[in-house]
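Recall the central idea of this unit: under ordinary conditions, the amino acid sequence of a chain determines the structure it adopts. In this exercise we apply that idea directly, starting from the sequence alone.
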Amino acid sequence: MKRSLMTRRHAVFSMGAFAVSTLPTVGRAEPPIRLATIVVGLSAGGATDVAARRLAEGIRESYAKVVVVDNRTGAGARLAVQHVKAAAPNGSSLLLTPASMMAIYPHTYKDLAYDPVKDLVPVARVSTTELGYGVGSAVPESVKSMADYQTWIKTSAAAATFGHGATGSGPHFLGELLGRMSGVHMVQSGYRGSQPALLDLLGGHIPAVAAPLGEFLPHMKSGKIRMLAVTGNTRSRFLPEAPTFKALGIALSDMTEWFGVFAPAGTSDRMVQQASAAIKTALNNPELINAFGLMGMETAWSSSTDLGVRLKSDIERWRGVVKQIGFTAQS
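Accordingly, the structure predicted from this sequence is:
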């Protein structure tokens, strides 16, 4: 009888221990995955590429043991988005992209090969930046202000030409809207990223370029680029000598560009939150904040949910802007 009682007690204890061991562990950090790739659709050396490499360093070990950056340029950065869309939804493929490819392209490309809301999952917003409009040696030295430039571009079709890093993007529409407000039809020239456009600007092959502010900063010390204006409500701390379009009385839509990380649709909530948490921690590192600042970027983390809300809001906002401009990309 005594032995039977002891056996029952042992059985009850064993079942209780098993039940406790199968309960989910609260707050346990997930181990890092083996390899993660951050895909970027713009050229190496540009602000987006450098930001991706800094971010890769920041989430190494916390999110993945190895993090690499893959530049997949072409088609206005659409190839990068398409690549991540088709990747396995296991957390190993992440896309770092400006807002343009997600919020504007649905209105400019009739046959866009991805749906930014259905085919990708928001992970986290990473940063924000203002856009700048600069001119180079192809513009007479007498053109020192935006008012001077608006007068000069009326002299010829060649004068009213500007470059940008991706057709149908925010910088592209900045130039288009500036032309409309100046009473001039602007001729736009799209490049595979802002850096190739800026090299042509420095070489005197194109008169003006619209681009994220950070793309200009490495070239400003040369004195070969004159920044005529930047977007934003106040002067940028990165280039305080440049006036804002707003201060010049040129009313533009909100042209602040955000950069976000996305994963393929079907990626588990657990992996998304793990990546988002690693990115948040990385963006709080003073060294990374300073590195982003050198590229004219303000670190600005937001959650997966908040980024999803912002994306849908911006898609609707840009619908009206694109309709106003009347632009449709050919391919």
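The chain has a mean pLDDT of 90.
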